[in-house]
Write a sequence for this structure.
């Protein structure tokens, strides 16, 4: 977390103009991390993110039971699942498995898909959007038409069809989500790169013969990092929802691996009698997605004070 | 204006062509054999071969694609493998339910999003503002299927106020539309707030206030008119996405729209239907964006397309 301040605090960062001011006398301007700390809503989001990450990492130790173990005593004598009891904290599901343990393990799927899919989308989007924005010309036009096309693609439909036909694993689901999500990041990076590559320091670097690859990686990429950080965080929230929707439709991660959307899918036929089987995983998805949204929004304010409150 | 329209139409056609090409290729490379699916598991190799020939699936890829493209251009989307009905006819039969849900969903989004966004902008930086914005984030972060199921449980099952899913009367429409409105309304509220904050800071608003107009009129008449453009863009986007079928919500409520059609087709790998829905959705999305663009100059005389 400490790294946020360093990224934009680098001499090559957006604050070059300050070099002319006497450095010793100036109190340090508030760093992004300090600004983030003063935003209670974002900090609440960060706290929830922390809890979810802990749940995912510590699931094998924190879960009271094996998430796939079916307890005969987890079902009533008529075969109904239990609501919350002293033994099963959040109740049991239709097969008599412990819901709380399944939720803890479900955090793993959500976060893993969220981070992997979103990381892949960021990588593809930055690469394609960045190249198109830097080289402009025909590359830019081709890029714009291609993204137009991708944006008109019914994304969820495409993802459902792909994962239904491909017999999905966790990795396929992540890949499919990345394939439909990269285009938004690419558009943002493209427009930023267009503006950046017209600036004087790029001209100067070119003039002294910095090779293009080095120019892109060392001089231009650092300027994109704040944007990527914000979009990366907000994107996890979208991805978590996306994965949950796929699992809810039964084309996400395969059972018996517990995933939050999958738990709701399995319980759907019985939810009028056992609403907690929908409410508890639904709440887990909501909180996780909300938390990443709050942190991402807070980061945007912290990294770009002019955008504050917009 | 005419030139602009022609350029935009040309771009739209290009986008549609690309989508037809990509979906077609995708359907081709997927490891699913339609001939085998139609023939069934117990069919002999000869039967499968005969069906493959009848469908033209033994032709070269380019031939298959150009034939398909020619048919699509004439509005013929092929026949469903499973139901032996024209795909266009299937889409037509799902059209009324889809339009109903699209309109009602957008109405709910606007009803929830616009007042919330305006309120937050007017009371900027108060606890009310923060509360509304967290509420908006809650809306966009909520998984629609869980919201839908819990609405069904509370409103339809426990309170027996509305029917438990299905299609027919206006009462059937409320819960699915509300489910769409809760998520979309959050986005609308955020966009409305940020545009409104910007507009309220402009000189003409100060002038309107200075000449003594009541605050409600300043916001409702002067500022709102100038803050409506991004909302139009969003309505255009939603028009497209909702027309293409909202698979999750339709699945929760048993709503017989295009999303349900797509979902059923995906489960049995009925490729002509999947292709048809994708192309129809893309057409709807492109149309929605185009309609939004064409509305701008009418709403804001400063925008003139060359």
């Amino acid at each position: 977390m400490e790294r946020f301040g360093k990224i934009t605090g680098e001499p090559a960062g957006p604050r070059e103009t300050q070099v002319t001011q006497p450095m010793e006398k100036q109190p340090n301007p508030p760093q992004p991390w300090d600004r983030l700390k003063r935003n209670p809503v974002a900090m609440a989001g960060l706290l929830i993110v922390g809890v979810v990450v802990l749940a995912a990492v510590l699931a094998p130790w924190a879960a009271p039971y094996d998430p796939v173990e079916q307890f005969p005593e987890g079902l009533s004598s008529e075969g109904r699942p239990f609501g919350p009891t002293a033994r099963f904290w959040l109740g049991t599901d239709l097969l008599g498995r412990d819901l709380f343990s399944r939720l803890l393990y479900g955090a793993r799927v959500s976060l893993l898909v969220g981070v992997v899919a979103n990381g892949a989308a960021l990588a593809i989007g930055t690469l394609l959007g960045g190249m198109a924005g830097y080289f402009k010309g025909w590359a830019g036009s081709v890029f714009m038409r291609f993204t137009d096309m991708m944006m008109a693609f019914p994304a969820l439909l495409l993802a459902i069809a792909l994962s239904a036909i491909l017999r999905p694993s966790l990795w396929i689901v992540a890949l499919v989500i990345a394939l439909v999500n990269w285009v938004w990041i690419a558009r943002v990076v493209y427009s930023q790169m267009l503006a950046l590559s017209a600036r004087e320091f790029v001209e100067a670097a070119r003039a002294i013969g910095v090779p293009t690859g080095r120019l892109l990686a060392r001089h231009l990429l650092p300027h994109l990092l704040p944007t990527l950080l914000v979009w990366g965080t907000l994107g996890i929230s979208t991805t978590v929802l996306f994965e949950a929707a796929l699992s809810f439709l039964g084309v996400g991660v395969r059972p018996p691996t517990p995933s939050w959307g999958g738990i709701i899918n399995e319980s759907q036929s019985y939810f009028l009698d056992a609403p907690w089987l929908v409410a508890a995983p639904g709440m887990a998805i909501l909180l996780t997605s909300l938390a990443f949204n709050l942190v991402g929004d807070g980061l945007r304010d912290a990294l770009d004070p002019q955008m504050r409150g917009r | 204006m005419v030139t602009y329209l022609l350029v935009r139409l040309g771009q739209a056609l290009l986008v549609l062509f690309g989508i037809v090409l990509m979906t077609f290729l995708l359907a081709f490379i997927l490891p699913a054999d339609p001939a085998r699916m139609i023939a069934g598991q117990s069919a002999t190799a000869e039967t499968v071969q005969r069906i493959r020939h009848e469908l033209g699936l033994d032709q070269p890829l380019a031939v298959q694609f150009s034939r398909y493209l020619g048919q699509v251009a004439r509005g013929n989307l092929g026949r469903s493998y499973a139901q032996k009905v024209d795909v266009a006819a299937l889409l037509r039969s799902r059209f009324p339910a889809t339009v109903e849900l699209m309109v009602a969903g957008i109405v709910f989004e606007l009803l929830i999003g616009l007042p919330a966004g305006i309120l937050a902008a007017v009371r900027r930086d108060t606890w009310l503002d923060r509360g509304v914005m967290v509420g908006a984030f809650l809306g966009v972060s909520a998984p629609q299927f869980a919201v839908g199921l819990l609405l069904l449980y509370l409103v339809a099952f426990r309170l027996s106020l509305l029917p438990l899913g299905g299609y027919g009367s206006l009462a059937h429409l409320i819960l699915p539309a509300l489910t769409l409105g809760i998520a979309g309304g959050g986005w609308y509220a955020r966009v409305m707030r940020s545009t409104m904050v910007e507009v309220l800071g402009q000189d003409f608003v100060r002038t309107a206030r200075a000449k003594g107009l009541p605050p409600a009129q300043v916001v409702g008449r002067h500022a709102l008119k100038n803050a409506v453009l991004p909302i139009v863009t969003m309505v255009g986007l939603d028009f497209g996405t909702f027309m293409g079928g909202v698979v999750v919500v339709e699945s929760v409520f048993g709503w017989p729209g295009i999303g349900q059609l797509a979902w059923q087709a995906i489960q049995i790998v009925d490729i002509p239907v999947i292709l048809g829905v994708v192309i129809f959705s893309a057409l709807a999305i492109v149309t929605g964006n185009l309609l939004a663009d064409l509305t701008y100059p009418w709403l804001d005389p400063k925008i003139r397309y060359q």
About this structure: The interface with chain B takes residues 41, 145-146, 148-149, 151-154, 156-158, 160-162, 164-166, 237, 241, 244-245, 248-249, 251, 261, 264, 268, 271-272, 275, 278-279, 281-282, 285-286, 289-290, 293-294, 297, 309-310 of chain A (CB under 8 Å). DSSP finds eleven helices and no strands in chain A. Chain A has a mean pLDDT of 81.
